[in-house]
Amino acid sequence: MSQQDLVLLEKKLLEKEEKLEAEKEKLESLKEKLEEALEKVSSLTADEAKEQLLDLMEQKQAKTAAKIIKIKEEEAKATADKKSQEILVDSMRHGAINYIPEYTLSVVKITDEDVKGRIIGKEGRNIRAFEQATGVDVDLDEEGVIRLSSFDQVRREIARRSLEKLIKDTRIQPFRIEEIVEQTKKEVEQIMFEEGEKLAHEVGVFNLQKDLLSVLGRFKFRTSFGQNLVVHTLEETKIGMHIAAEIGADVNVVRLGCLFHDIGKVVEGDGSHVKLGVELIKKFNIPQPIIDCVAQHHEDEPFTSVESVIVHIADQISGARPGARYEDIEEYGKRLTQMEEIAKKFDGVEDAYAFEAGRELRVIVNPGQMDDAETTVLAYKIRDEVSKALAVPGEVKVTAIREFRAISTESS
């Protein structure tokens, strides 16, 4: 072997030695890292090691879970409208009742005009005694009928029944009038209790206090916009209960919330029927979630539960459906005209149109007199003025339209 070969061999040996040293250093470094890891693991309890493992797995699955959530949200959005329509339609079907809203007047028909003379009595003493005992006004002007007028429909019912008894009895005199009216009051009180009990039982509510049932029974003699309160309450409660069952809400809270929501309408006192209703049911120790449903069914207070929202929705469905409520057509037309006149009084308004049964007022603004910001403020002012001046049921939407058009024509 030549000298040159020996040199080359020595060089290769040195290179291999250097590589071995490098590998040795890497192994030492890896050994140190493993020792550190083992030291760390050895200091953990079984629960701590399990927790770290779960955290690691959770981090790995986070992205996958996020994707699944996003997909489900998109699916929910796609089906939400359709499902909500199905629930509402099905609820309205379940809320159908066996009779239509009543439009009643307290009128007593007579076949003999001489009866009116006996009712008036000598120097009007009989009619004065009757009006004082019943608290109603008696109108004898129309032929063939006697009209009884009072804001309190229970009083009118007592007066109607009493008058019919007196006409049959023929002994119309102050003492007999007072006696008949007193008897009739007791009869009507018993009827109200029975009607309240019947209403409560029909929606599945039992064991209510007698006084509370008697208040509910006043619904029989109370109407709102021509819609009898018994009819409205039955319908709304059935709708609300079905919606609650469909979406998994508390059916019993909705049931009682719907039953009591308008109870303030048959209670005497100052304030709205919502305020009076809340004050009444608090006296009977009704649970707070039900009180909230009554307090919030017209959005006088912010909703605090899904049950309150359901009571509000059921009330709107029952009251707003076609045919539910009666309104005088002439008065209705006057109100729409007044809405338009109120809007036209504002500067910059060229024209106004009320439509959607008076729930929307569309205002045409002169673009030369008002800018966009002023148009927005105008819409709020008109809405407030309409709300103050007119008793319009529900919300009024005011749409102010400012449109600029430039038209150029070329003559040939």
**Average residue-wise pLDDT:** 80
The SSE string, one letter per element, is HHEHHEEHHHEEHHHHHHEEHE
Helix content range of the residues, please? 55-70%
Stretches with pLDDT under 50, minimum 5 residues: 98-104
Subunit arrangement of the protein: single chain
Alpha carbon gap, first and last residue: 114 Å
What order do the strands of the largest sheet run in, or round the barrel if closed?
A: 1-3-2
Helix/strand/pairing category: mainly alpha
As for the number of domains, it is 4
CATH superfamily of the largest domain: Hypothetical protein af1432
> So how many helices?
14
CATH class category of the largest domain:
Mainly Alpha
Query: CATH topology of the largest domain, what is it called?
Result: Hypothetical protein af1432
Number of strands: 8
Give a quick account of the main beta sheet: strands, pairing sense, barrel closure: 3 strands, antiparallel
CATH architecture identity of the largest domain: Orthogonal Bundle
Kindly summarize this structure in a few lines:
The chain is mainly alpha-helical and 412 residues long. Helices cover 63% and strands 8% of the residues.
